[in-house]
Specification:
Blueprint lengths: L2 E5 L6 H11 L8 E4 L6 H17 L6 E3 L8 H4 L4 E4 L4 H10 L2 H10 L3 E5 L1 H5 L28 E4 L7 H10 L3 E4 L5 E5 L2 E5 L1
Parallel strand pairs: 1-5, 2-3, 2-4, 4-5, 6-7
Antiparallel strand pairs: 1-8, 8-9
């Protein structure tokens, strides 16, 4: 069964951070994490990635226990199998999906989740976990010209991160057209999917 914590902004919210620690279930100093910043390309996106890394260190995760994967070469399940969690950062969702496929990381992620390990998505990383990434179209530029927008299918729910009232009309229209359930998340919320059960952390 998949164990997913899908967020807009990572572990900035203390309740989400506490939920993360409960899901891992071991002392924070022993947590081993794969950190994937590949979706970030702009200065702003890279700044958010640095903030995410700082949050993890402030939480008590040791720098030596965080392995960064840039998706610039093939990734196999063997490389990540001994880690407790995958932390997939935000950025451009189309670029992220392209890199995940090119490196075979999509297969490694699915194998990882099958082993009852935690997938932690941030923004684009949360969208990636769903059945498709079409929700990113109004917000991210598809400058890598992806035509197959199929996601990882770790869940059949589509996450819409950074939700606010300005986006209500866009998201409502998307919901009408989508055959999947859509879960809008504000920056203070996370979707928890575990053992087939779905909950909101805020």
């Amino acid at each position: 069964m998949a164990k997913l914590l899908l967020t807009s902004t990572g572990l900035a919210n203390k309740n989400i951070a506490n939920q993360f620690l409960q899901l891992i279930g071991k002392p924070v100093s022993q947590i081993k994490m794969i950190f994937v910043p590949a979706a970030a390309r702009t200065k702003e996106e890279l700044r958010y990635v640095e903030e995410s890394k700082t949050e993890l260190l402030n939480l008590g995760i040791l720098a030596g226990n965080i392995k960064t994967i840039h998706l610039d070469k093939p990734v196999s399940f063997k490389e990540i199998k001994y880690f407790d969690t995958l932390y997939v950062c935000g950025g451009n969702t189309f670029y992220l999906l392209k890199k995940v496929r090119e490196t075979g990381f999509d297969k490694a992620i699915k194998e990882f989740v099958k082993k009852d390990k935690l997938y932690l998505g941030v923004s684009a990383g949360s969208i990636l976990a769903g059945p498709n990434i079409e929700i990113a179209s109004p917000f991210d530029k598809n400058d890598v010209h992806l035509t197959d927008l199929t996601g990882l299918h770790l869940t059949e729910i589509i996450v819409s991160p950074h939700y606010n009232n300005k986006e209500k009309r866009i998201i409502d229209n998307f919901k009408k057209k989508s055959r999947y359930k859509v879960a809008p998340l504000t920056d203070e919320q996370a979707l928890l999917i575990m053992d087939g059960k779905i909950g909101m952390v805020e």
